[in-house]
Amino acid sequence: xxxxxxxxxxxxxxxxxxxxxxxxxxxxxxxxxxxxxxxxxxxxxxxxxxxxxxxxxxxxxxxxxxxxxxxxxxxxxxxxxxxxxxxxxxxxxxxxxxxxxxxxxxxxxxxxxxxxxxxxxxxxxxxxxxxxxxxxxxxxxxxxxxxxxxxxxxxxxxxxxxxxxxxxxxxxxxxxxxxxxxxxxxxxxxxxxxxxxxxxxxxxxxxxxxxxxxxxxxxxxxxxxxxxxxxxxxxxxxxxxxxxxxxxxxxxxxxxxxxxxxxxxxxxxxxxxxxxxxxxxxxxxxxxxxxxxxxxxxxxxxxxxxxxxxxxxxxxxxxxxxxxxxxxxxxxxxxxxxxxxxxxxxxxx
Length: 349
Ligand code: IPM
Ligand code: MN
Fold this sequence. Notes:
The protein is an alpha/beta fold. Helices cover 41% and strands 22% of the residues. The chain folds into 2 domains: 1-104 and 256-349, Isopropylmalate Dehydrogenase; 123-253, Isopropylmalate Dehydrogenase. The chain has helices at residues 13-31, 44-50, 56-62, 82-94, 159-176, 194-206, 219-228, 240-253, 292-305, 308-324, 338-348, and strands at residues 2-9, 35-39, 67-72, 99-105, 123-129, 133-142, 150-156, 181-186, 213-218, 235-238, 261-265, 271-275. The strands form 2 sheets. Strands 2-1-3-12-11-4-5-10-8-9 form a 10-stranded mixed sheet, with helices on both faces. β11 and β12 form a beta hairpin. The longest helix is centred in the first third of the chain and has 19 residues, at 13-31. Manganese (II) ion binds next to α8. 3-isopropylmalic acid is lined by residues 84, 88-89, 244, 276.
C-alpha cells in the first residue's frame, strides 16, 4: 500500500493535480496496486490565513509517506520568495532530495520550436544538484541600503554533495543505456573554486565508469547546443543554479511548460514529483491549463515507487494524446479543457 502525500498548492496546481490523481486511479486498477492519498493544504491560502508555510510538525507528518505529489507554489498576493523558499525549497532540503531529475523529451515534432528537430533529437535528462550551490541561502549584506552596499551570495559546494550527485548521474546514465554519454555542465573558466571541485570529482568518479563517455560543456555554450544540436546530449549533470536555468530552456524545446515534469529525489528517502512550471495565476480556475506535465510527474513518481510498468504506461498514454489529439500544448490552445485532457490520458491507458 503506497501512501502518497498530495500538495495541490497554488494557482492551477489543484487543477493539474486533480487530473494526475484521475490517472493514478485508472493506472492503479490496470496494474493492480493499492494506494492511499492524503491532501495537504500547504500553500498561499493557508499562509494568508495563518501565516504558516511549513512547520516542523508538517515535515514530521510527511515523513510517513512513500512519496509527495506537488502541484505548484506561488501566489500574486504573497511576496515572492516566501512560498518558494518556505515550502518548495524547505521540502527539498528537509527531505534531502539532493537530485532534481528533469527529463527533456520531445513527444511530437509539431510542438518543438526548433526547426527540423524530431523526437529522437530532443531526448536527454538533466541531473540537477538540488541541495547546495547558490540555493543554500548563504551570504550577507554589508551596509544594507548605504551607497557602498555590498551583497554577497555564496555558492556552497561540498565534496560529498557534489560527489553523490555526480555518482547518481553516472548510475542513471548507465541504467538509461542510450548514448551512455554524461556531460558535465559548468563554468570552469570563471567560477574557479566551485567548478574546480566539480571537475575533479567528475574526473575521479568517471574512472569507475569506463562504459560511459564523458564530456564537458560550459553552461553558456550548453544553452547554445540545446538549440543548435540537442541530439548531442544524453545525460547532463550540473549544479543547482545552472540546472534551474537550463531546464527552463529544456522545457521549451520539449514543447513547453505544459509537458515538462521533474522529480526531487532522495534515493534513500521520500521523493517529491512536480510539474516544473509555476502556478500560472492568470489561468487559475479556468480549466484550460495543460495537465500533462503533472501527469508525467505522476508517471515519474510511480517509477520511483517501483511501479515501473505503470509509470511507463502513463508516459505511453501521454505520448498518444500528444500525437493524436492535442492542437497545442499551451494553456487554452489545446483544443480540449484540462479535464478533457485528463480523460484522454485515462482512455489511452
Ligand atoms: C524550479 C523553480 C524553483 C527553483 C523556484 C520556484 C524556487 O524555479 O523548480 O525550477 O528555483 O528551483
Ligand atoms: Mn526553475
